[in-house]
Amino acid sequence: MDRKLVYSAGALIIFGMIMVYSSSSVLAESRFGSNLFFLKRQMLWFLVGSLAGYVMYKIDLKKLSAYSVPLLFLTLIFLAMVFLMPARNGSHRWLFIGPFSVQPSEIFKLAVIMYLAFSLSQKKRDITQWRQFLYPYGPFIALGLILIILEPGLGSAITISLTVLIIFFLAGVRLFHLVAFILPMCSLAAFMVFVLGYKSARVYDYLASIKSPLLGSYQVKQAVLTLGAGGWFGAGLGDGRQKLFFLPYPHTDFIFASIGEEVGFVGLMIILILFYVIIWRGIK
């Protein structure tokens, strides 16, 4: 077992729990009557994730790889089935099964990683050649991405595309082939945003915030102010003020800003270094 990897992940988990409580306690007390509400839920998911991780750790990778192709096809079926479900906030992203709901695009992320890892590890094909690069990976991944984009779920499609690019890059795919994979996705994303108007307001807010953070949306402004308030060493754990209903979603979407306010620039750098160690050890 890689101790550096385990210690880095453990440190992030412990600190993450602390920050979930610190950034959500006020909101939890106001909305649910208990400042521990979000912390308890996070701890529950930690236990579930730990159990799942232990099970995966014990499974032989060769046996697990046998399920990669069936899982990919099953996920593609789920992605198609979401269009038969009622829309939520104008999008068909969820598959409802009784009282439970599942987002197939999240399962597709795992399925793609398993499928590519298994297929590329076989080394039966010369993926530096164009035809071998496209087949058999291209059609199935492209179909899944198209279904996700039609939901519409542009953010998930971009995340999966970047994941695929990283896997192909590590596998030794030619740069020309990677560029040929990127261009259609970028063109489609630009068409959806600037022609169809999908998420255009968010994109324009983001572009404006690059020019000047104070020209962005309310959330961006508050996030910038929150980060700036932290300075070099932060206000101290639990002493952040932006979580007092100034910063929206301080424990989820903008938790990085909440962390920056309480531990400062130095604390954020330590966190990023821990993530770097995990990535470095994972690749190595």
Topology:
Layout: H1 3-32, H2 37-58, H3 61-65, H4 68-81, E1 95-97, E2 100-102, H5 104-122, H6 130-134, H7 137-150, H8 154-171, H9 175-195, H10 200-211, H11 218-230, H12 255-283
Antiparallel strand pairs: 1-2
Task: Summarize the structure in short.
With 284 residues, the chain is mainly α. The protein is built from 12 helices and 2 strands. The protein has helices at residues 3-32, 37-58, 61-65, 68-81, 104-122, 130-134, 137-150, 154-171, 175-195, 200-211, 218-230, 255-283; strands at 95-97, 100-102.
Describe the fold and architecture:
Helices cover 71% and strands 2% of the residues. It has 284 residues and is mostly helical. It has 2 domains: 1-59 and 199-284, no CATH class; 61-197, no CATH class. It has a two-stranded antiparallel sheet with strand order 1-2. Helix 7 runs antiparallel to helix 8. The longest helix has 30 residues, at 3-32. The protein starts with a helix and ends with a helix.
